Amino acid sequence: MIELNQVYTHDFQFTQDDVIKFADVTGDHNPVHLDPVYAATTLFKKPIIHGMLGAAVFSKVFGTLFPGDGTIYLKQSLSFRNPLYVGTAYQAVFTVLEVEKEKNRLTIETLIKETGTGTLITKGEATVMVTPDKLS
Amino acid sequence: MIELNQVYTHDFQFTQDDVIKFADVTGDHNPVHLDPVYAATTLFKKPIIHGMLGAAVFSKVFGTLFPGDGTIYLKQSLSFRNPLYVGTAYQAVFTVLEVEKEKNRLTIETLIKETGTGTLITKGEATVMVTPDKLS
Q1: Tell me, what's the ipTM?
Q2: For B75, which of A53, A58, A80 is closest by C-beta distance?
Q3: What is the pTM of this model?
């Protein structure tokens, strides 16, 4: 059962190979993600992970873990506060902000934090529709 | 030069192979994207593309085409109105809603429409920081 104020966490990290694959499938070959020489000239100093690859963790968790099977993604806001780097451990933190039983909808705060430091990387809010059994 | 009310469009489509690759790199193996038998039991009737793969087109365009090189992604809102299907032609439509020259920031409406029908698939708004030469 999913309840108001419930918190779910999910640990993850990405490799440079993941970033290359994400660039290939999305067509997003921005050199800031792929080229260390170019990235060194930017304020990030080294290659950063696509923000949308980080955000895809929210989609993965909603569709497969929490709430899981049958969940339909309705809305997501994203504020990219700090970059993600390859080989760094992150934690996605989900907090249930609102439960609308009559609509089978949840509003969930979605955060990505760097595991070691707690630094806020990505902040947002999602709305998902879930199967009724998740709320009864 | 990028100006208020400027419109930029980008045509795209994805294959089932793209969807499989996106599932692999993100870990989002929700069967609604991958399994035709499971998808047939849902309201979508056939496998749908991850909404975040569609949204990644916004990231690709910002980082590589419009505004392009040096663009930093700050915010994105996403409302997933209708699903995307493989092998269907879509158009991403970008409209400049606000230009903040002193901050080098743009607010851009981001839409995905089905090319044939004009059906609205995804609706959102982005904030990006651009290099000063894009606005001078």
Answers
A1: 0.95
A2: A80
A3: 0.95
